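User: We ran a pulldown and think these components assemble together. Before we commit to crystallization trials, I'd like a predicted model of the whole complex to look at. Sequences follow.
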Amino acid sequence: MKMNEFFSDLWRRFSKAVIVEDRWLLYLEGLGNTLLIALMAAVLGITIGVVLAMINYINKKTGKLRVATKISNFYITLVRGTPVVLQLMILYFVVFSFWDNGIMIGAITFGLNSGAYVAEIARSGFESVDDGQMEAGRAMGLSTWQTMRTIIIPQAVRNCLPPLFNEFIMLVKETAIVGYVGIYDLGKIPGLIQSRTFDYLFPLLIAAVLYLIVVLGLTKILHVLENRMAKSDRNRGGVANGK
Amino acid sequence: MENKVIIRVCDLKKQFGSNVVLDGVNTDFIEGQHVAIIGPSGSGKSTFLRCLNRLEESTAGEIWFDGENIADPKVDIDHHRQKMGMVFQQFNLFNNKTVLQNITLAPVIIRKKALAKKKRQNSRTRFLNCFRKEKQPLIEITETVESIQAEAERTARALLERVGLPEKADVYPSTLSGGQKQRIAIARALAMNPKVMLFDEPTSALDPEMVGEVLDLIRDLAKEGMTMIIVTHEMGFAREVADRVLFMADGNIVEEGTPAELFDSPKEERTKQFLKCVL
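Assistant: Here's a predicted model for the assembly, 522 residues in total across the polymer chains.
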């Protein structure tokens, strides 16, 4: 095969995958759905995760909230012990069988699922903060919550940012499972286009590149946040406001 | 003012499981007095100090401070802790705050909360006054959130001046030496204007050449008449600064007296043994 024949064939396949019938819109729609599910799931996951981790932490430090801790441990065990595909199908076909908003159900599933993982990440974040910090706060006459808010949580967040972003990256890619219940997210689009063009090459490549761009964006955000929070690090001079 | 008891400890007991750490400690701390607590490790001296502001919950017994038995779990301990400054062995400066913020944090939060409470009460009175024939007076509020912040910062800078570190106001604790950290920690405890200062082995985690600067500061505080309870291994320092020395062993006070009495002519065999090892 001659070189220009090879390229013109490639171009024909590319244009079938992207330009014909405005198929590029499909990728964008899929990307939009993926991001929407991931974003809602992340918000829900962080909320659940932080609450569970705080229950655990307060229980560990003060012995209070014993029942809440049992419940949260049960929840974490249950969610981490079962595949997310099954969780999605249970919510979609059983719990919310009356509801046809797949995107919302997907977001709820991944939010509940991610919550359990975020809880463990946040717990390790809380535990990485030295016990003396809480003692010092309490000894000054601050309440547990005042100390948590001003001292413990800011340090815990900083310590668990990298694993937290790891979780978000997993989340963005994992949401591809919603294809199982018929939602057109980015992971489902290549199959859809292939069923019309009988060519997988470019649809798969394009979807992969789009996922990659999202993940690179997340990594960039992490670096910015880490830099901003690293101001109390010794090796950065430890000086506030650049003074 | 003479011999006013500031903390009275009655039969204080502390158990970790079946391990008895404090076995019925009785003592009084007098206002203005500087008490050093010495003793072998595991004697319960740190636990005793931490029980005084309830960082450790005591198992039984009473601690009277400011007219209340603060060992009672129902007492609002946060309120009393504001009047008991504590200095830790490991400094425990807030790592995510600058030096100045470390000092202003607690006073600002606590005063802002008190201010918010007053404002709430006033709006309640104002509302109820609409229905009353005899109007009730409002609480006078002279401070604002800004004035609280500004005043706390002024106090903090004065304290930094006093501990000799005014130039460190805007740095983070991670850049300070151990001795500097401990001096900041003392300034932080002083910012609440406490009635009594508790020192939990303030120099044990320091490099030898930094012990001096911290002890000098504590010595200055002592001269100003601050009531202090110091758990320490620095026998020379205890002897010099303390008015009274408690020797603790096996969860109780074995012997107490003036430094001269205790160090020069100990009566108990246990005390003699200990002093022979450390002096």
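Residues 11 and 259 of chain B are 24 Å apart (CA to CA). That may be worth checking against your pulldown data before setting up trials.

User: Thanks, that helps.
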